[in-house]
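Bit of a strange request maybe. I'm writing a small parser for structure token strings and I need a real example to test against, not something I typed by hand. Could someone generate the tokens for this chain?
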Amino acid sequence: MTSHQAVSDALADPRIQKNKRHWRAFNEGEVPPDWPLISWIINENMLSKDGEDHTRLRRLVSKAFTPRRVEQLRPAVTGIVEALLDDLERAAGQSGDGVVDLRSLVAQPLPLTVISDLFGLDEETRPKLHRLVGVFFDQSVTPDEAMSTFFEMWAVLTGLVAAKRAEPGDDLTTALIAARDEEDKLTEDELIWNLVLFISAGYETTMNLIGNAVRLLTGHRDQLDMIVAGKAEWSEAIEEVLRLNPPGEYVPMRYTTEDMELAGVSLPKGEALMLGYASAGRDPERHGSTAGEFDITREDTSHLAFSHGRHYCLGANLARMEVNELLPRLFERFPGLDVAVDEADLAESPSIISAGVEALPVRLR
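Reply from user aminoacidic:
Good idea to test on real output. This should exercise your parser:
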């Protein structure tokens, strides 16, 4: 499903659920255990839960992502941004031609540091998880690589839980352990699975959002100038990026629980659906003939980049805040910053789930 209306309807329809028990092909053994997306299907986190199970899990972590809690993180995020921009400037000075990789120096470490601080990851674990998450979102790897990466990630997060049980901290991992051990609301598998979801999605999407925003803004310098001159808001630009080039394209999967019709298509019970969150934002029926153009002044920048309804992304406020703190400082310090290669020469991430580039070389001016 790719149109805005079809995706919106599917997200809101109670006959379409997230639990794999509704998928006929999976339950009849037609999906091999080494299928590259299998870990996105068999998981036991909020992403694959419905009804009371989903409500229970969501309630346990929602307090960590309230607008008030996110606002409390702002000073720390600002400090991280300033330090990363210092690193970026130093790297440019050492490069000889002023060209540096914005993805590896800023777009990746900003959300990784924020989410790692939130969950209490130590310095040694952070780069290891960054590597594993990168493979987790990579659909070009072999099934064996995908499975070994998943098991390695599981072992790393099991170690994190053991460390936090031994030495609790003021972090979300400790809070989830308390929910597991004291209130018995989480099973051990649910505890690890939800860490997989929060930590991986918590920085992969924000990293891609930063890169996509820089590409669009430098490619539309007239609109960037409007923002710098105070004629438009950074928040408006961010919403337009989320509409036109969101960091996530698909999130596997949803399943029909009965024979039904959606967007004029007859669907049998037990069918698996992939919803096109990115294509929904570019739907001409929703956004007119200019749906494929970047325009921060358009009246309707509504999108489904963070999903919709009961599975709306808990981290949306945090992602918006991080990007809104970074972009003004980035272009204030480096007003002539530009992508150093042609758009066609940027290598897209090998993923049907996330949408970004593997590297973003920029020239600081």
